[in-house]
């Protein structure tokens, strides 16, 4: 039942037997069907005991393995039911979940995870495995947060942050591709900060001028993307404010929020920028983190 290989271009979904599994499998199965691509359903069996314990308690070890097989089998059956003729591959490996998922992410095109599985502290808004994979995976990672009920400014649309950085360009490519594939509208958000106000220009006039310049910068940056994806309905939003807060607000009732892994201001050693962190912890919809 177990295949340890992840084909290049596959969609990988991580399952752990938690309540988050069905939504993650559903999202990944639909994505694999639309692309189309192989779907790899991955479950990691953590070894919590020493080798001596395993040798002395073979029945306990066998029971853990049966439980892991059940978790994987349930997810695979769901994937087969949802994904039609998609090639579904089960993967069961021994090791820390984040390590196992990152190994398979190396060859994949996309990894899909629930926001929090077993074992997390109640106060944490994102599980450690999801955060580690989002930080280190070489491919885009989608983390499914609980969907927002009601409506929001971008209801049913894909939202993407744009700041002109290389990471942002990768996020735009991912967002435009998905918008075209699923026939969704795309809201592109550019946040800008306060600039110097010159004493010889009235404040209101200065702000109006800066706002127009920032909007023009966004529109110019999107010209090649509009040309490449002419069928996508694009809404441009250039807004004064904090990028993370604006994107979280915009995510209410959105289908997906797409962010780059790191924007302009991050320290070189950080693997995930502050905007990405905020989105993963506070967004009201699924979040895709796209690396450069």
Question: What report would you give on this structure?
Answer:
It is a single chain. The protein has 292 residues and is α/β, with parallel strands linked by helices. The protein has 2 domains: 11-144, HUPs (Rossmann fold), CATH 3.40.50.620; 158-290, Rossmann fold (3-Layer(aba) Sandwich). The chain is 42% helix and 18% strand. The protein is built from 9 helices and 10 strands. The chain has a 10-stranded mixed sheet with strand order 3-2-1-4-5-10-9-6-7-8, with helices on both faces. It is elongated.
Strand-helix topology:
Blueprint: E1 11-14, H1 21-34, E2 39-45, H2 51-56, H3 58-83, E3 88-94, H4 97-105, E4 110-114, H5 128-136, E5 141-144, E6 158-161, H6 166-182, E7 186-192, H7 203-228, E8 234-240, H8 243-250, E9 256-260, H9 274-282, E10 287-290
Parallel strand pairs: 1-2, 1-4, 2-3, 4-5, 6-7, 6-9, 7-8, 9-10
Antiparallel strand pairs: 5-10
Quick tags:
292 residues, alpha/beta, Rossmann fold, 2 domains, ten-stranded mixed sheet, 42% helix, 18% strand, elongated
In short:
Helices cover 42% and strands 18% of the residues. It has nine helices and ten strands. Helix 6 links the parallel strand 6 and strand 7 (186-192).
| Broad shape | elongated
CATH class of the largest domain: Alpha Beta
CATH fold naming of the largest domain = Rossmann fold
Spatial gap, N to C terminus: 35 Å
Largest sheet properties:
10 strands, mixed
Structural class: alpha/beta
Rounded Rg: 21 Å
Encode the helix/strand succession as letters.
EHEHHEHEHEEHEHEHEHE
CATH architecture of the largest domain: 3-Layer(aba) Sandwich
Q: Which stretches are low in confidence, meaning pLDDT under 50 for 5 or more residues running?
A: 117-125, 263-270
- Kindly report the average pLDDT value: 84
What's the total number of strands? Answer: 10
Number of domains: 2
Helix content: 40-55%
Strand content: 15-25%
Number of helices: 9
Strand order of the largest sheet: 3-2-1-4-5-10-9-6-7-8
Q: Write out the CATH superfamily name of the largest domain.
A: HUPs
């Amino acid at each position: 039942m177990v295949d340890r290989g992840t084909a290049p271009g596959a969609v990988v979904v991580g399952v752990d037997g938690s309540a988050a599994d069905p939504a993650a499998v559903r999202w990944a199965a639909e994505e694999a069907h639309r692309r189309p691509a192989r779907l790899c359903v991955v479950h990691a069996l953590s070894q919590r005991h020493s080798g001596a314990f395993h040798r002395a308690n073979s029945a306990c070890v066998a029971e853990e393995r049966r439980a892991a097989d059940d978790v994987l089998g349930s997810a695979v059956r769901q994937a087969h039911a949802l994904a039609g003729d998609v090639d579904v591959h089960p993967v069961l490996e021994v090791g820390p979940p984040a390590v196992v998922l990152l190994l398979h992410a190396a060859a994949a095109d996309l990894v899909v995870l629930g926001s929090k599985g077993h074992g997390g502290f109640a106060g944490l808004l994102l599980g450690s495995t999801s955060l580690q994979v989002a930080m280190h995976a070489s491919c885009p990672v989608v983390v499914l947060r609980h969907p927002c009920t009601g409506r929001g400014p971008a209801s049913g649309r894909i939202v993407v942050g744009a700041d002109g950085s290389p990471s942002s360009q990768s996020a735009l490519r991912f967002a435009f591709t998905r918008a075209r594939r699923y026939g969704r509208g795309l809201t592109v958000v550019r946040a800008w900060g306060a600039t110097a106000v010159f004493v010889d220009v009235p404040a209101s006039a200065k702000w109006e001028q800066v706002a127009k310049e920032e909007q023009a910068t966004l529109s110019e940056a999107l010209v090649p993307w509009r040309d490449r994806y002419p069928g996508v309905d694009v809404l441009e939003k250039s807004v004064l404010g904090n990028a993370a807060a604006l994107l979280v607000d915009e995510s209410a009732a959105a289908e997906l929020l797409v962010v780059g892994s790191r924007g302009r201001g991050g320290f070189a050693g950080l693997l995930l920028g502050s905007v990405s962190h905020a989105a993963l912890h506070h967004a009201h919809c699924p979040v895709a983190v796209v690396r450069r």
